[in-house]
Design a protein that fits this description.
This protein has 245 residues and is α/β, with parallel strands linked by helices. It has helices at 43-52, 97-115, 130-146, 188-195, 217-230; strands at residues 17-20, 30-35, 57-62, 66-67, 75-76, 123-128, 152-156, 175-179, 201-205. The chain has 5 helices and 9 strands; from the N terminus they run ββαβββαβαββαβα. The strands form 2 sheets. It has a 7-stranded mixed beta sheet, with helices on both faces. It has a two-stranded antiparallel sheet with strand order 4-5. Helix 2 (97-115) crosses helix 3. The longest helix is centred in the middle third of the chain and has 19 residues, at 97-115. The two termini are 15 Å apart. The model is unreliable at 237-245 (pLDDT under 50).
């Protein structure tokens, strides 16, 4: 049986999330989890989910579990807050054990798989910056702890966290990682390390500086092509049929 449209009651009450149904009352064959960047909230990615309008896909915009200190506003995905003394900016890579429990165990395994009836292959993630790192950490953890292959992960400007063991290539979840041509966290060594963990990795380097969100059709095209190649569809499948493969 295909999964049903999730509701807030399918998840732990302390989770802050917004659920965006598929366009035009289509069946929610796929789920796309949206993970915002460091210092943001889930509201901006709620709008992103509405604008993406992916066929047969419900989006869930998750808010990171921990507020930033000192009344800075916004939330973060890391286990800790560390300021880089040289740049006076917050470090993205501060551990993701909490994310493995929140995103991997609570949202994906308990909420989407057990409560709503989705297969792991029908669940996708898209994250920006630290949210991309969180998505990669959760996907790697699900592969190693539960042998789950997700539909795919898109990370915009978020490399694999340093705490993830890159000794063996065992994770089967396909990855698309994107970054700027300069002033980017997505370096050649980071892409190589990602390929040491995941079997299928695509890297798209934008012809722009920095790792900001895509701002035009050309920058968005690789993401939409990735989803087009991976999203499942039940259109035209008779009621009660069983998909093979």
């Amino acid at each position: 049986m295909p999964g049903r449209l999730p509701s807030a009651s399918d998840f732990a009450s302390w989770l802050q999330l917004a659920i965006i149904p598929p366009p035009a009352s289509q069946a929610p064959t796929n789920i796309l989890l949206l993970l915002h960047g460091l210092g943001d909230t889930n509201s901006s990615f709620t709008s992103l989910g509405q604008n993406l309008s992916l066929p047969e896909t419900a989006c869930i915009s998750l808010q990171a579990p921990t507020p930033l200190p000192f009344d800075l506003g916004g939330y973060h995905w890391g286990d800790d807050i560390i300021f880089d003394q040289a740049s006076d900016k917050m470090d993205f890579d501060t551990g993701f054990e909490k994310v493995k429990k929140v995103v991997g165990a609570e949202v994906i395994q308990k909420g989407l798989v057990r409560q709503c009836g989705y297969q792991a292959r029908e669940i996708f993630m898209l994250g920006f910056g630290q949210g991309g790192m969180a998505a990669l950490a959760a996907a790697a953890s699900l592969s190693s702890s539960a042998s789950l292959e997700l539909g795919g992960v898109v990370s915009i400007g978020g490399p694999l966290p340093s705490t993830i063991d890159a000794a063996r290539k065992t994770a089967k979840t396909p990855i698309l990682i994107l970054g700027g041509s300069s002033n980017s966290l997505i370096t050649a060594s980071n892409v190589t390390r990602l390929k040491d963990v995941f079997e299928s990795v695509q890297y798209k380097q934008w012809s722009k500086a920095g790792d900001g969100m895509p701002s035009n059709r050309e920058q968005m095209l690789p993401i939409m092509q990735f989803f087009a190649s991976r999203l499942r569809s039940r259109k035209g499948i008779p009621e009660g049929s069983v998909e093979v493969g």
